[in-house]
Amino acid sequence: MEQINNLKTIETLYAAFEVGDIPSVLAGLDEKVIWNEAEGNKYADGNPYIGPQAVLNGVFARIGVDYEYFKLVNIELHEMSNNKVLASLRYQAKLKKNGATYDAQVAHFWTLNNGKAIAFQQYLDTKKVAEAEAK
Fold first, then answer.
1. For 40, which of 63, 75, 90, 126 could close a Cys bridge (C-beta 3.0–4.6 Å)?
2. Burial of 117 by CB count in 10 Å (0-12 exposed, 13-18 middle, 19+ buried)?
C-alpha cells in the first residue's frame, strides 16, 4: 500500500486555493472535518465548522465577499508526528469596504487521515486584521 504523503496533500490544497480552485480545496477535506478559525477572527463566529459545506459557507464565501484579494504567501510546511502538518505563512489581503491592506503572520495546524484533512486550526495576528477592518 502506498504511503500517503501528508505534506504533499497540504501543498496541493494550498496550490488549489492560490488559483481559486475552491472545489479542489473542499475535496481535500474530510466530510466531517472540524475547522476552527483563530479566536478573535470575525470568521470564528461559526467555530467549529463541521464539514466542507460549512467551511465553504462560513469562511471561503465570506472571504470572497469581504476581500478584493486574499493571498497566502511564504508558505512553509512542517511535517509533524501523528499525521499532523504545521504551515507557517502570511496573509496579504485587501478589504473591499475600505481599501485597507494588511500583511499578517499566520499558522495553520492540520490533522490528516487517509489523505484528507480531518481537522484545521488557524492561528492569526488578529490585531493586524482588526486594525485594517477599523480604517
1. 126
2. buried
